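re the bet — no i am not wrong, look at it urself. input seq straight from the record:
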Amino acid sequence: MKTYLHTDPQVFEQLAGRWDDLVEPGRSNTFFSHLTWQKTWWQYLQRGDLLIIAVQDDAGNLLGIAPWFIEQLEHKNVIRFIGCVDVTDYMDIVAHDKDKEAVLQASLDFLLGNGAPPWDLIDLCNLPESSPTVALLPRLAANYGLEANVAVQEVCPEIVLPTTYEDYLSGLDKKQRHELRRKRRRAEASDVSWYMVRKEHNLVAEVDSFLDLMAKSNEEKAAFLEEPGHRVFFEDLGQAYFETGELSLIFLTVGGQKAAAMWQFAYRDRMLLYNSGLDPVEFSALSPGIVLLTYSIEDAISRGFRYYDFLRGGEDYKYRMGAVDTQVFNIVIGR
């Protein structure tokens, strides 16, 4: 194996032709590993210094990328994933599962060699439970006499979608099924409709409307969008994923006024609910967030998606909608 350290943001352009080819094709929770996400996060939300390790085989084929950076935390140099922690739900090294052991081995060899920058901890967030990295990295670290602490970091509830919306409803408990039907009937009697942003819409205006509703939702989201880089992060991601067809931005309207919105990504067999916004005052009696969620789930079923992924967070409403937990892990390795 040959390893190459990249500390200049130009690496995103240098590896652009090969980066996404390394994203594991067999797993659908790899959305955030793609170059567009990683590059945009670094552009607007970067902290610390880039530490991207590219691993090649002896024939010069790129096998994998460790998309890391070093951040100073409490007087320690900490290696973290690009994207950690708050705005990126799944993280991993960028390599096919069959190559992950070789890439992790080469990355550790480099970090423990003479040419590596100084570091004290490796703190890797949001590793999906299905990733081989969860088991491989602690075992490889132990070979160097390093101790790895592995812990559940968060839950990512998801719904395994049936083939029809009626089948979905029938899988819920009787009370919840009744509540969802009642809320839909009440909303539809009040001039409620929903739409997905498409090419005929003004994307910039629609993204602005979403962010305004997101800020209205609660004080925490409003404060989040006030932080440097966060609003333009959404704006640039929206444009990029709208062009690829992966942005699924939907709105619920009441009498023509936007009442709720959901920012989703349509990726492989999975609909990812990334964020949402609503007007909690004017339209609260109509439960616009839940009503829009029912339309979203129905739409995902009709489009043939296999999973409806709520991403990180164990909020009660996800379980009322029939979601079941998956987990993401945190691995911390000290020297």
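see?? The chain has twelve helices and 14 strands. told u. also The mean pLDDT is 96. so pay up
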